[in-house]
Design a protein that fits this description.
Chain lengths: 404, 404
């Protein structure tokens, strides 16, 4: 399924980044499972990470490295098929050895190699498979679309489709490009960042600039999606700016850059949701007239997590009573008799009570790949958009397979 | 599936209650959908209700009636197949007319008739089908086991099995009986009460006594179960004491009564969970060494609501990494390296990291109808037990059927 809006469109490659991928044999399938990005000298960086208290070794090491280098990253090394999480000291040692070896091959200090992992938790990372693969990975890097596509495939796990988005804009004499790639289709309920997302830009920007821009953008995009309500231990969004375009972030271009970043992140967020495990229907949830944005988000999350709502959506069932019950159980002190609910363009619940509507039309709307549900609280002026999905028997099948 | 412990066993009927059931035609299936209990004069009552902000008309009317009568109830009228919720004034008028008509037939004021409804939200209650059925309902009431069984069937919706439990004990010269009946198999995530539960005792007790006992018992039983994390708009637990045994609650018998009530409620809670929609595996979750009971409950609920944990359980997959990730996302400030996890008798995660264990044995344990998962936080001295279930493709099928 693809969302009609913000589909990836043309992909532009920013200057200053090369990509590579290899099969290290971490995935039993023999697919690509190791990816590398090399960034030009003086590349600046900012990142946001999972809020889960259980964090994988690469998240801790990446966070510490960013602090130590004051926002400098020259390479990104990612493996899929193993989260490198919850295996004690082994996880840290593995991650450090991989960063060290990658750095050595590229002539970089270990702290400038940013690590990520995604896959099963609690299984030791097979370092002995990864280390011998690094030389090939480094030697085969390149700057073409083909190299990029291989990298994106190397970070996929249960994803059915690669996820890319880019925006290019002119700022004075320079052309600045923002490119984003992402993986993620289960454990999608980011609390700050989401899954693995890498954002590459060729603007000139300080790490502090990048950090501020990234936080604001994540809040509006990756923090407003949910597939299954589970927050991963490895969520990472990394933004790199190579400076190779020569375009600086200034009063004129900062807004353009923020918009470009927002558009790329929103597209990736939508691609992640529509490729969610077992997803048949994407729901664009809009919670309106809340007292605060936090309140609107709380209501949106309660609805997006209700199994009864999500299973009703799987059946394209315009069962607004379940939505209303989920709003009531959200913990927000709503007054039921001020709640209005729309499915598509139709009002289906007026002031907390049933009202006449064309059920077949509402059913047909929910049967579409993407549909709209609006919840109006009549409590204030805060709104939020939230992207979520139905819950299908396929989701259960994908996740109930006895895997360990 | 039945839980090995606390299976219903012999059912004792307390003195002072008669039961009745009828088909009013609310359920399309033509099954029993209207139930009545008549209680002896001077019966005392206490109730706890859903914490959902959206509450059904019978919950509001029942709560107000209990306040007006200061804890006196002489009859209970329940329909299944329709929640009588979110249909505006119609819901209140319907409920009042039904209580009024039932009272008239029994020679009671309307406020002494306690109403409940369970079923679909947002569809007007077909009062015109219920009112003409009341005369038969009243005339056919009786005190036998058969009358009781019919009543229990009349309150069922998607339940596969009726749920009953009772305990009888001697207090001085008197024999006191506590009987409980319940319905509920979806929308099971009580926040104070759960679903419809009626508890009948023939002790002599004040409403204040009953209220205190009921609150404490619910906190330990119905508030420690979850099937799907959805909180109903109609949850009600009603406790009635007819006084007909002559046994008074005094220093000696109060503890016995509390224990009997606790045992009946625990059995009903376990019956509700094991009859949960699509449930194949019941998990007895134990969260230990938390800083407080609230913290233990928060961790238990986070694990019990994680779709990835629940689907792993459906596959009897000893994937403790998903459990650890859910603990980390619970919002409790746990330290991952103090978390131990047991599946059955085996330690599968020691200090937040993998440790050697017999995977097949853990798989076999989780493949049993009822299994044990222990999470030890090493933060303090508070513990909680929590009963939950797997999430199967059958749950999705049951709830994705296009129903409205």
């Amino acid at each position: 399924m693809t969302l009609p809006r913000r589909s990836p469109g043309k992909i532009y490659l920013p200057q200053g980044f090369s990509f590579s991928a290899a099969c290290a044999g971490i995935k039993a399938s023999g697919r690509l499972d190791l990816g590398l990005v090399e960034a030009a000298p003086r590349t600046t960086a900012a990142a946001v990470f999972t809020k889960n208290r259980v964090v994988a070794a690469p998240v801790e090491i990446g966070r510490a490295a960013l602090a130590a280098t004051k926002g400098r990253v020259r390479a990104v090394i990612v493996n899929s098929g193993n989260a490198n999480c919850a295996t004690g000291n082994h996880a840290y040692r593995s991650c450090q050895r991989i960063c060290g070896a990658t750095g050595q091959l590229l002539g970089l200090p270990s702290e400038e190699v940013f690590p990520s992992s995604t896959g099963i938790i609690g299984v030791p990372l097979p370092t002995e498979k990864i280390l011998p693969t690094l030389a090939t990975l480094v030697s085969e890097r390149g700057t073409t679309r083909k190299h990029l596509d291989q990298f994106v495939r190397a970070i996929m796990t249960t994803d059915k489709r690669p996820k890319l988005a880019s925006v290019r804009f002119r700022s004075g004499k320079e052309t600045i490009t923002v490119l984003g790639v992402a993986k993620g289709s289960g454990m999608i309920h980011p609390q700050l960042a989401t899954m693995l997302v890498y954002l590459f830009a060729d603007a000139v920007a300080t790490p502090a600039d990048l950090k501020r821009l990234l936080r604001g953008t994540c809040e509006q995009t990756f923090n407003c999606i949910s597939v299954d309500g589970d927050t991963s231990t490895n969520d990472t969004v990394l933004l790199l700016a190579s400076g190779q375009s020569g375009g600086r972030l200034n009063d004129g271009s900062r807004k353009q850059f923020a918009d470009a970043l927002g558009e790329v992140c929103q597209s990736l967020a939508e691609q992640i949701v529509s490729d969610g495990e077992g997803v048949q229907h994407v729901i664009r949830l809009s919670v309106e007239q809340a007292s605060s944005r936090e309140e609107a988000l709380r209501v949106a999350r309660a609805v997006a997590h209700s199994l009864l709502v999500k299973t009703a959506w799987a059946g394209a069932d315009p069962n607004w009573g379940r939505i209303l019950a989920a709003v009531g159980a959200s913990g927000v002190a709503i007054k039921p008799d001020t709640v209005n609910i729309f499915i598509g363009s139709q009002l289906v619940c007026r002031n907390g009570a049933s009202c006449p509507f064309a059920e077949r039309k509402a059913h047909r709307h929910l049967a579409k790949p993407v549909s709209d549900v609006r919840i109006i609280l009549q409590r204030g002026h805060a709104n939020t958009k939230f992207l979520t999905t139905d819950l299908t028997a396929d989701y259960v099948r994908i996740n109930a397979d006895y895997s360990t």
